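From the pipeline queue, job 12 of 40. The input is one protein chain; the requested action is below.

Action: predict structure.
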Amino acid sequence: MSENKPGQDKLANLSSVEKAAILLMSLGEDNAAEVLKHMGPKEVQRIGSTMAGLQDIDKGQVEGVMDEFMTVIRTQTSLGVGADGYIRKMLNNALGEDKASSLVDRILTGGNTAGLDTLKWMDARSVSDIIRFEHPQIQAIVIAYLDSDQAAEALSYFDDRVRLDILMRIAALESVQPQAMQELNDILEKQFAKQTSSASTDLGGTKCAADIMNFLDTSTESQIMEAIKETDEDLAQSIQDLMFVFDNLADVDDRGIQALMREVSSESLILALKGADEVVKEKIFGNMSKRAAELLRDDLEAKGPVKVSEVEGAQKEILAIARRMAEAGEIVLGGKGGEEMI
């Protein structure tokens, strides 16, 4: 009978998720972050929670896991020392600080928001249907918890009055207490797993409201903004200052504009510039070769009249690309809501 390798007996008791967690923690922060980038929020949270719960993982177990994954590790110290800091830094590298912050807090404090996380995997219409008849504050918490683009789409399925109420409640949110999370999980009890968090969760605020507004179609955005101004002019100004709109592209540095233009189709750019401010047009022209700028000017003149909805759609498309690139750290967005650089 062959002799078991060190840690072999313990290895047999490890679940597949525990093995994946050990493997990632053995790869180092940068490599683990690259792997996590290709996972969805559910997988990241599940593996991250498992990492946080791992204790007394010895070298033999690590080597057994690596053998199982057909990988060789020659030296590896025990895992678990400083695990919290490791997990926090790794998730920040993988997801960006904004996206990782709430996930890190839930993982390291043992919290569980399974119901809310499940909503992120649903289509926006289904989310709106689930919360349609709930208390407006519950609606606001759910919408604020979603990613901004999904939140904006979910809002589009409500009437004007409800949209306004939800946006204003989101802007007023700062954190959500455990009791509120408990109430929300109770509402979703039949569909999702429930547990409460021991700590309050940062959620909502004017920045959250501004991010959602960025993803609304222009007519809806304008309608809601006007309604907010009528109710609370200072709040409307605060939200507007944090929004990134097409005219704010004039404040993006030249390298950022050049990188953005490489991702945008010529047809979308022509449509978007038909309704753009002259400052933005000159910013775009100034970051092209003289020949390319002349051709773009000619195309703009030859395009003729276009529907306002087509212009707005093209601008929203370009803004979505810009925000995606900003989240990936490829460009830095300017504008009133941009982060100050030093």
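Job complete. Confidence is low (pLDDT under 50) at residues 70-82, 192-199, 335-342.
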